Amino acid sequence: SNPASMTLAGSLTNLAFDGAIGVAVDGNFAYVSMNDGIAVANISNPASITIVGGIGFDYWYFSGATGLAYANGRVYTATTAQMIMFTFDVSTPTSVTTTGLNTYYTQSMISTGYFEAQGNYIYSTALYADNLTILDVSEPRYPTQISDIYVCDSAQRVKVWGNYAYLGCADGLG
What we know:
By secondary structure, the protein is mainly β. The protein is 0% helix and 52% strand. The strands form 4 sheets. The protein has a 4-stranded antiparallel beta sheet with strand order 1-2-3-4, with no helix packed on it. A 4-stranded antiparallel beta sheet has the order 5-6-7-8, with no helix packed on it. It has a 4-stranded antiparallel beta sheet with strand order 9-10-11-12, with no helix packed on it. A hairpin with a 4-residue loop joins strand 6 and strand 7.
């Protein structure tokens, strides 16, 4: 509550978080993407965080997960090397299921960077294509690319606020 006097309220060290790279929070749950799946943690008591669910993968193409975004009971993540976006149903956090496995071979999605989800839209950066790509995910099994725009060199992160998308780029703010 006081940024000048921060203290660690709790943490969780667990092998399930091997390679954790993305996190999204909704209510009492944190969703974490990692090298080989998604973990769900109950964070209702920060001093006693517990893993309550998740889904692991034997898929060789899941390695290298990038970001993670949460919207409408679904979690989205992607891999850099294989250009695959994963959609998970997390409406029941203790029982995560795969909703969709979608491969994009468009230039704008090569080496997907990080996601921002709002409503039925995913805003994604693409590290090597320097773009902001917007996907309509109202049908989780069949996301549709609705927009793609060059923004800046090496688009790294995206944050949507109101009617605007802000990108962190190698050369500044886009």
